[in-house]
Amino acid sequence: MLTRRTMIGAGLAAALPWRVAGAPPAVPQIDRLQLTILADSNVSSFAQTVERPGLRILPPERAASSYQLTLRGEWGYSVLAEATAGTAPAHRLLIDFGYTPEGLAGNMAILGVDPATIEAMVLSHGHYDHFGGLPALLGRVKRGTPLYVGGEEAFCARIRGTAADGPSFGRLDRRDLNAAGIDVRISPASATVGGVACTTGRIPFVSPERPKVPTAMLPGDGCRRADLDPDRRDADVFVDDAVHELGTAFHMRGKGLVVIASCSHRGIINTVRAAQAVSGVDRVHAIVGGFHLVPPQTQAQTLDTLALMRALKPDYILPGHCTGEAFLAPAIAEMPDQVFRTVVGSRILFA
């Protein structure tokens, strides 16, 4: 049956592939990828193993022996990626840091994750629920560890809501990062991370998605005005458009991209399309993370996004964080063998 949703999906699928100018960054193919959810709001002692072709989702495996310690669920997101090519040792990357240092540090300890083994880090965007846990790692990751950030505005102080007198939503302190010897790498262009992944760089709007970002930033407060885009340098308050937000992508040999979109303030479809553009890889193996399909996004927008996602023909969809029940219920109903929930401590294995 031809509906608005199927027409949207068909239109995206029929569109000519788009590419960024110049050669894409080197994105080596990998053979194995394990993702461990370190921070999210969904915690469960009843998570079950999922096995599908090329995919296993394992329930949390505790390294801590005491039953009095438990994994902590908080609003926010953090995922540890361990990528392997051939017989080479795995490379460990950390994408985002959750809401609080206590939550991230506690979950890492229970799951047996040593911060000193992390080789590179990516901050998707400058919202507290994605960088709030970062202080737990300062002084524990090795000095010189790179942190990839999509733009100077990630360091701007933020307020909740879009009113100029709204309450504070914190800011990322560059001085703490410098003192800990973190190698902060700020670039709106795609970058290769740890030799096994790439960031999307800036994510253009190429689909109908236009998510509303529920925060505003304060140019000059924590961030350097001269390094911001011209349209926001002189503003006292600027309503967020998340132009600095990054996705992270891995290229699975023979299977395509695994795209991690921590919050999708630029739209999950736009994020995947950006990953395809910078990597030169069209096939999508899995889409992971938060899809930002919560209010004020509407049910109609959510269903349109679902249609667009189906048109991308991913093998698997693993939503979390800010995806929202309005997406989860119809997505699981339509694609029960492709869409799977994850919880804090879930280990997702692609091979």
Automatic annotation (TrEMBL):
SUPFAM superfamilies: Metallo-hydrolase/oxidoreductase. It comes from the Bacteria. It holds the Pfam family Lactamase_B. CDD domains: DHPS-like_MBL-fold. Residues 92-321 form the Metallo-beta-lactamase domain. PANTHER family: METALLO-BETA-LACTAMASE SUPERFAMILY PROTEIN (PTHR13754), METALLO-BETA-LACTAMASE SUPERFAMILY PROTEIN (AFU_ORTHOLOGUE AFUA_3G07630) (PTHR13754:SF13). This is MBL fold metallo-hydrolase. It comes from Sphingomonas natans.
